[in-house]
Amino acid sequence: MTRHTQLDVGGRVSEETFAHLAGGKAGAIPMLPVIPRLGSVTGRGNRWGVILAGGDGVRLRPLTKLICGDDRPKQFCPLFDGRTLLEQTLQRSERTIPREQILVSLTSRHSKWYSRDPALRRSQLVVQPANKDTAPPILHSLLSLAQLDAQALVAILPCDHHYSDEESFASALECAFETAAERTDSVVLLGAKPDYPEVEYGWIELGSPLGHEGSELFRVRGFREKPAIDVARRLLQQGSVWNTFVMVGHVQAFLQMVQATLPDLLSMLGSARMWRGKETHIGYSLYERVPSVSFSRRVLSAETDQLVVLRLNQVGWSDLGDPGRAFMAARETGYEPGWIQDWVRAKGVAVAALE
C-alpha cells in the first residue's frame, strides 16, 4: 500500500491532509472547490507540467542584449530558429503532457516580454511578484495541482535548456512518467551523461542500479554543486551524471519531500491564491515574506532516499548558461544563427574561443 491512502474517494486532498502538508491545523487553510480536470489525453490525463520561466538569466544577458537590444532574460530570446527558449520548452512539453495541463511560472517584472509571446496561453500563467529562486514557484505549483488532481504526476521543466536530440529527450521524459506512475513514493530526476568534467553544472552521484540488468535507473548517492576541477574529473570517472533539474513524480511524493525539509515555506505558500486553470498572480504582501530558496540544495540534496535517477545518453543537453554554451548548442544542431558573427565582431574574439 502506498502513502496515498490519505486521499479521499472524491479524488481531492482531504482538508486534514492538506492542512498537514501545509504544516497547520485542519480548517486553517480554506479548501478550494473540487474542479474537474481541465483536459484528458488517453493515458495522459493525470500528467501535468510546470515550466520554470521566472529566472533573470544574468550570465547570458550580454548575448540576449546583442540579439534583441534589451535586457530580457534568455527564456524570452530567440536563440535558435527564431523561437524563444520558452516557446521551444512549451513545444517540447506538449509532446508528452496535454497542453491545457501545463503551467508556466513567471515573474511579474518580465511581463513586457512574456505578454507578447504568442506561444503562451493566459490560462497557463502563474505570476510571482519576484524571483525567489526555484523552491517557491515549484511549491506553489505543487500545492495548486494537489487540489486540482490528487493523483497528478508532475514534471518540473526549466525553460532555459537546450537538447540537440529532441526525440531522445521526449522518450526519456515518457519513461520518467511511466517510472513515476509505478514508483509513486519516488521522484525521478533526469541526469545527462557527461562528456567532460564541467565545473559549472551540478552533478549527481549514482547509487545502486534499479530494475533489470541494463536499466538506466539508479538510486541517488549524493549531489555535488559546481565542483572543483579535480572533483569534476573524479565524478566523470565514477560515472556520475549532470543534474538537468528535470524531474517527474507523484504530487504527494514531491510534497512529502518538502514537508520534511521546508515545512515553514510550505505553510506560508499554502495560504496563497492557487492556480485553478486561469491566469494567477501570487499576492505581493505574502511574497515579501517568502525567502529565496533553492529546491535542489534544500530539498533534493536533503531527501535523497526518495529520489531515482534516469540516466540519459546522448541528448545533447546544455543549460545555455553563457555565450560559449549557446554557440556550442547551435553548432550541434547544424544551425548557425547570425548572432554568432555579431558576437565575434562585438567582442573581437575568434569563433574558436567560444568552443
Short recap of the structure:
Helix content is 33%, strand content 19%.
Record the SSE blueprint.
Layout lengths: L14 H7 L25 E6 L8 H8 L16 H9 L8 E6 L3 H4 L10 E4 L6 H14 L4 E6 L3 E2 L2 H17 L4 E6 L9 E9 L6 E9 L3 H10 L2 E10 H11 L1 H7 L10 E2 L2 H4 L7 H6 L6 E6 L4 E2 L4 H10 L6 H9 L8
Parallel strand pairs: 1-2, 1-4, 2-3, 3-10, 6-11
Antiparallel strand pairs: 4-9, 5-12, 6-9, 7-8, 7-9, 8-11
Task: Describe, in plain words, how this protein is organized in 3D.
- The structure is a single chain.
- This protein has 355 residues and is α/β, with parallel strands linked by helices.
- It has one domain (9-354): Alpha-Beta Complex (Spore Coat Polysaccharide Biosynthesis Protein SpsA, Chain A).
- Helices cover 33% and strands 19% of the residues.
- It has 13 helices and 12 strands.
- It has a 5-stranded mixed barrel.
- Strand 7 (202-210) and strand 8 (217-225) form a beta hairpin.
- Helix 5 (135-148) crosses helix 8 (251-261).
- The longest helix is centred in the middle third of the chain and has 17 residues, at 166-182.
- The model is unreliable at 1-42 and 350-355 (pLDDT under 50).
